Amino acid sequence: MSNSNRNLHPGKQALGRKNAKAIIVVTLALLVCSLALFFFSAPPRKDNRQTQLVKIRPGISPRQVGSELQSAGVIRSAFFFNLYIKISGIDREIKAGNYRFPVGATMVKVASMLRDGDTAKAKVVIPEGFLARQIGQELEKAGVCSQTSFLTATRDKDLIHELGLNVGNLEGFLFPDTYYFDIESEPGDVVRKMVANFVKTISGIVGNTENLGSAKNLGSKEFYDKLILASIVEREYRVPSEAKLIASVFNNRLKIGMALQSCATVVYVITEKLGKPHPELVTHKDLTIPDAYNTYLHPGLPPGPICNPGKVALDAVFNPIKSQYLYFRLLSNETGQHRFSRTFDEHVQAVIPVKGY
């Protein structure tokens, strides 16, 4: 009797076992989902930082990437991260570089940044007329590369040769502009980007004009001479509309063998060759400093550019205008305007030079 009672409702017993299994499966599924959601979510913030900088080295394995991200506190689990990038195929698309991951970013967001190469960028503004030394200072402040390593790259003979140039250093070819560089960039890559920008700009300036021949070979003496002159014009003009007139004055002086007599070259000697502060006023004594860059003492162009000229100065020299002027003098520090003269007598009669340069 008792045996028959145990088997009285076999269907209900089977249903009970199925329900128990279903409950276990659902519980395990919920547990797995909960774990996945937990590990896929961002780790808790440990401090007040908004981003976390992590360097992904070239050649590193996807498994190592996951470990480094977990160690840096960017993700919770290297295991789940590696599983995700393996299933999604991102493990084959990870790009090296320095990444600034937002604190609170999900694992999916982190993986997509690595796939897209969304590396940390630094905005660097290089004003017209900056020297390589000054550019290096800005790069170092922005965390792009050290000033020393940048300057070393600008003098690297192999790099200069790679760029198709025949100069001792790249002063003049480092085009002033607003750049977005990777944090901790290779100095050579920074130089390549700036020179490529220069080549693009000068090609646009020259265009199909009669000056095209001089821009075809950036390593030619003719081109380099024009670049040197453009660097002087850059440091002399203040009002863009006067740049071509100033260039015409220097071209006229070169044609007749007259010394350029550019105060900008004297300032270059004082600040870059002698390492002194920028003078408030160029004195007559300064004009006698014995140096090849002093265009008051040495006729013709100085040995190299005295800065990195911008588009206005480059256009003034590579697309010159003609004039009869041989002299110019600053009339006002406020407006930056100059007075242009054809003769020395007219120049002497001009307004007394204002203080400063």
Write the topology of this structure:
Blueprint: H1 2-6, H2 10-40, E1 51-56, H3 62-71, H4 78-88, E2 97-102, H5 107-116, E3 121-125, H6 132-141, H7 147-154, H8 157-162, E4 178-182, H9 187-206, H10 212-216, H11 221-236, H12 243-256, H13 263-273, H14 311-318, E5 327-330, E6 338-341, H15 344-349
Antiparallel strand pairs: 1-2, 3-4, 5-6
Helix pairs in contact: 3-4, 6-7, 7-9, 9-14, 11-12, 11-14, 12-14
Radius of gyration: 33 Å
Ranges with pLDDT <50 over ≥5 residues? 208-215
Shape: elongated
Output the strand order for the largest sheet.
1-2
Largest sheet report: 2 strands, antiparallel
The helix content, as a percent range, equals 40-55%
Strand content: 5-15%
Structural class: mainly alpha
Indicate how many domains the architecture comprises.
Answer: 3
Mean pLDDT: 86
* End-to-end C-alpha gap: 118 Å
Provide the succession of SSEs.
HHEHHEHEHHHEHHHHHHEEH
For the secondary structure, the number of strands is: 6
* Number of H/I helices: 15
